[in-house]
Design brief:
The protein is an alpha/beta fold. It is built from 18 helices and 13 strands.
Length: about 525
Amino acid sequence: MRRYFNTAGPCQPERHYFLPPERRLTCVRSLIERHLFFVLHAPRQTGKTTLLNTLAYALNGEGQYTALVIDVEFLQRTSDVEAGNLALLASIARESTVVLPAAEWAPDPTPWQQSPLRALHDYLRAWSIQCPKPVVLFLDEIDSLRDDLLISVLRQLRMGYSARPAPFIASLALVGLRDVRDYRANIHAEQDTLGSASPFNIKSDSLTLRNFTASEVHELYAQHTAATGQVFQPAALDLIYALTRGQPWLVNALARQMVEVEVPEATQAITPAHVEAAREALILRRDTHLDSLAECLREARVRRVIEPILAGSTMAMDTLDDDLVYVRDLGLIETTPHLAIANPIYTEVIPRSLTSIMQANITHEGVWYTRQDGSLDMLALLRAFQTFFAEHSEAWLQRFAYQEAGPHLILMVFLQRVINHGGRIQREFAVGSGRADVLVEWQQQRYVLELKLWRSERTIPQGIAQLSRYVQRLGEREGYLVVFDRRAIRSWEEKLFEQEHAGPEGQRIHVFGV
C-alpha cells in the first residue's frame, strides 16, 4: 500500500508520510530516565498521540522499561468517582495485554474493586512490584476528566509519587490540550481541590510540541516525491510554510488536498497556485480541526485575547496572563515576536467563523462593483459599505460578542461576500498595532486597505502615514483608509465622509469615514 498524508488520528510510519516525533521534544527521554512525572500539552492534531505511541514502542523495544499509553477520553462523561477509577484500572489491564509481553501485564483489577477510591494508587503500586521493569505510564487526554474524578486521579498519582522510594510507577506523563494549571477549569468552583494553586504540583516539567520547521516540511513532502515522482516547486514549498507556520495538521491537510484533489496526476508539478487553491478549499470546508478552533472563540477568556488582536488595540489591563497562556496553548496565537494569530490560515478562519451568519445575510454581489474591463471599483464598493453599515451595524453589533472588533469584522464580511469567487482577501492583525490591514486581490489587481477605530484627532493622520508605508511595502501607489467612529454623540451625517490625501511619497490615499 502506498503511503499518504494523514489528517485523522495518530500517524503510522508504515501507512503515512511520517517524521520522527521525538525530534520535536528531545528532552522527554531524560525525564523518563530520571523517573520524573511531567506534563505534555499541545494543541489538537499536532502529534501528541503519535509521539506517545512512538515513544512507548521504542521504550518497550529497547527492553529497559515497560511503557503503556492509556487514552482516558472515554471517561469524559463519567461523574461517578468509584466507577471512573475502576474503569481506568480495567483499561490499563486490557491495554497491557494487547501491547506488552505476558510477564509485564498489569494485574487483574478485580481485587481492587473493594476500595475504589484509592484503587488506582494501590493498583499501580502492585503493578510496579510485580513488573520486572520500571513502568512508564502515559495518560493521554487527561484534561477530558472533570470534577471529582479528575481530582481523585491526580490525588492518587501524587500520593504514589510522594511516597517513593516505596514502589510506584517510575515515570508518568499527563498529556492533553492544556497545561496542568488549566485543569482547574475542569473543576467546578464548589468542588474540593488538591489544596494548592496547581492541581498537580509534583510535575517536574511542562512540555509542549513545537511545529515543524521549514526544512521538516520539505522533508515530509520529499517522501511523497520519492514515492510518486510528483514534485513540489520550491516557491510552493515556501508558500506552504508561510501559510501554515509548520502546524502539523495544516501541513498534512494542504498536501492531501493538493495531491488528491487539486493535482491528482503525479506527473504534474505542484505550484503556488495549487497551494492557494488548496488553502481556500480547506477554509471553506471547515474540517473538524478548523471547526474546533471556531468553537473556542465563544469562550470569554479566548475573546479577551483574540478581540484586541482583530481590532489592533491594546490588551485590556484586566486580561489575565493565564488567559494569554491558555489561548496560546490552544494553538490560536503566537506570542513572539509580537502577539498575533498563529498562522495566516487561522487568520482567515477566525474572522470568517465569527461572521458566517452575517455573510449569509448580505445580498451584495461582486458584479455590482465590477467595471466593464473586469476591474473592481473599490471606491463604489466602499461607498456602498458606508450605506450598508449605517443601516445595519447597530442591530448586528448589539448581538455580537466581539464588540470592539465588530466594525472591522463587518467590513471584512462585506468584502468577503462581494469578492467571493472573483478574488481573495488577505488579512494582517497584531495587538497594539492600532489597525487591521487588508489586501484584496482581484484579477491581476491589488487593493490595499487599512481599518482603524477613531481614537482622537490624530487617528486619520496616523492612519495615512501607516497606510502609506503599507502601500509602499507592497509596491502599490493607492490605498484606502476606513475609519470607524463609535462616538454616540456623532450623527451618521457627521460620521460618513470621503476624502482624498497624498501620502508622504505621493501615494494616493482615499479616506472613508464610517
